[in-house]
Amino acid sequence: MPVREKAAGGVVFRATGRGWEFLLILDRFGWWTLPKGKGERGETPAQTALREIEEETGVIGRVGSLPGTACYPLEGADDGDVVKEVTYFLVEALPGEARPQPGEVADLRWCPAETAPVQCDYPNNRLVLSRALAQLTGRQDR
Prior knowledge:
Layout: E1 3-16, E2 19-27, E3 32-33, E4 36-38, H1 45-57, E5 61-63, E6 68-73, E7 82-93, E8 105-112, H2 116-119, H3 123-141
Parallel strand pairs: 1-7
Antiparallel strand pairs: 1-2, 1-4, 2-3, 2-8, 5-7, 6-7
């Protein structure tokens, strides 16, 4: 049975005059993805997501709903089969400037929420982004 490594992250969003935007990061492997990371002792998944988002992007956010979980095998794991399970939250960005974390995040960009899934390089995150957009659209229609 594979070992599960748990992590948490966020679909960071903001409202603009043109609609919703999602924040994507360029990871150290050169792939556009979502901010995420492993939890520290005593943290809840939501606390982990907020800390990782702030560390990787400088964005302070407010946790909302849960758009999904992504699971994938870790390549090159030394101890056999390891599956990473990432819990993603919808996180509203509070006012402030986004900046990439040196050594961890090569770049970042705000992109229209409608096109974010196709701009994200990891297929398992595309579904998370699509669900997040559906939740925001539902929230907007209320």
